[in-house]
Amino acid sequence: YGSDQWVLGNVISEDCLTINVGGSRDPRYNLSYIVSEAAEAGKPFIGVSFNYRLQAFGFLWGTAVKEAGVTNLGFRDQRLALHWVQENIAAFGGDATKVTIWGESAGARGVSYQLIAYGGRDDGLFRGAVMQSGSPVKYIPGAYTNASEWDVYYNNITAAANCSAAADTLACLRLVPVETLSAILNSSVASSASWGPAVDGDYIEDTGPALLSEGKFVRVPILLGTNNDEGTAFGKTGIDTTEEFFEYLVRAKGYDQAKANLLLELYPDIPEIGIPGTLHGRPGNDTSYGAMYKRVSAYAGDSTMHAPRRFMSEIWAANGLPSYSYRFNVLSAGISQYTGSTHFQEVAFVFYNLDGNGYNNSVATDPFLNKPDSYKQLARVMTRMWASFIVDQTPNNNGVTDVEWPQYSLDDPQNIVCDANVTDLAYIESDLFRAEAIAYMINNGV
Q: What is the number of helices (H) and of strands (E) in the chain?
């Protein structure tokens, strides 16, 4: 469901709760490549992927939804799929006691919400977790914690579906043909709504930061990380002055003036320390990125990705649990210097998709196209690290690099940096970039 599938011409169906053992319909997520490489490395595992309900079908919110107990359905779909694995994976030769859950972006967020579901209740569904560019910690104002605040969106949807007068508006919505409902959900009627986790007091008992801080999460080893230039995918373009940046923080992000002014100090107008790292100086005047592009992108990447990743790493370390943190810094084929090592770019590397299957279309380019062989070598290193973590709960039994990936610690926090332009393809760094700004975000929930 959604724009990716429409553009690629994939099948769209409300009958979407399917499970794939060993593959995926979307060739970009074909698990056979990493499974084959893992087996060759002596780290065999079975790859299972599954679909879950998206947009309003999976994350409708509001008073009526909460009272009916049908909140966070997309996450509940995921939970049921994990129960299916427990009940059935032995029939495929798998071991139900050795499950690792793994996701990227919204998938990583889904994984993270399995860690804190039902107040961190451990139902024995998994023993490890991998999260690429996603977490239950989102340092932006306006998290959905009050169902009544969402009712304006719910009421707009029910009105467009001619369900406002129904005694049971949810029951009425269920009778609307899916094509009609989908058209409503993708029209201006719902354009101001967003679809995501809701604090319902059941599946999600409190906000992600609160649950993690209170120790309400499943205690398993984790591997997590972000891409260097995540913010180019999430920041606003076209901001030319400090005053415009201030207005964006106050009006669009909801900060009070004091916090907005402090963020301006923490993210100064110094292009050399902004992102993307591939863009030197300011964008050209002939572009629409804006003079403050690197400054705004640094803030956006930290608030959506880097601060949450660092926060989770610190929580795991504080509780004496293994966590392995990475930073991916590669400019893939087809990606401009203005975008850099942005969101999603590591996926082909960890899936060992060396032929770029699924990428040669109107929306993507083979990440390895006309790139040096070091790109494919890095893919092998990353694939084997991930396989080692899945099988042995450490990425260091990979057999292809002497670079030891350290567990994250509070005394000496470190990341492994995956970089196709360095001799060893990976190196260790102190996790201290933009330390003051990110610490402020973590400590103040912004």
A: 18, 8
The two tokens of residue 375 are 């790109």
CA 197 vs CA 7, 69, 74, 100, 261: distances in Å: 26, 14, 9, 22, 29
Sign for the pseudo-dihedral over CA of 421, 425, 428, 433 = positive
Structure token pair of residue 125: 């569904």
Kindly write down the DSSP assignment for every residue of 282-298, as one continuous string. Answer: SPPTTSSS-TTHHHHHH
Beta-carbon count within 10 A of 444 CB: 10
> Mind listing the domains of the chain with CATH numbers?
31-46+94-144+196-444 (3.40.50.1820)
- CA 313 to chain centroid, in Å, comes to 15
Residue 131 — φ and ψ, nearest 5°?
A: -130, 110
Which DSSP symbol is given to 19?
E
Residues in the chain: 446
> Are 291 and 243 in contact, with CB atoms under 8 Å apart?
no
Q: Are 96 and 86 in contact (CB under 8 A)?
A: yes
Q: Among this protein's residues, is 230 annotated catalytic?
A: yes
User: What is the predicted pLDDT for the residue at 176?
Assistant: 98
Closest Cα partner for 64 from 184, 166, 143, 162? 166
- 347 vs 119: CA distance, rounded Å: 30
DSSP 215-256: T-S----EEEEEETTTHHHHSPP---SHHHHHHIIIIIT---
Annotated active-site residue 105? The verdict is yes
Nearest in space to 54 (alpha carbons), one of 108, 110, 136: 110
State residue 266 phi and psi, 5-degree precision.
Answer: -70, -25
Exposure of 310 by Cβ count < 10 A (0-12 exposed, 13-18 middle, 19+ buried)?
buried
Residue 8 pLDDT:
73
Output the pLDDT for position 25: 81
**Which one of 104, 205, 230, 346 is the catalytic residue?**
230
Task: Say what the pLDDT of residue 141 is.
Answer: 42
pLDDT of residue 4: 73
> Among the options 105, 182, 213, 409, which is catalytic?
105
Check: pTM over 0.90? Answer yes or no: yes
Q: Which residues of the chain have pLDDT under 50?
A: 140-143
Beta bridge partners of 326: 225, 416
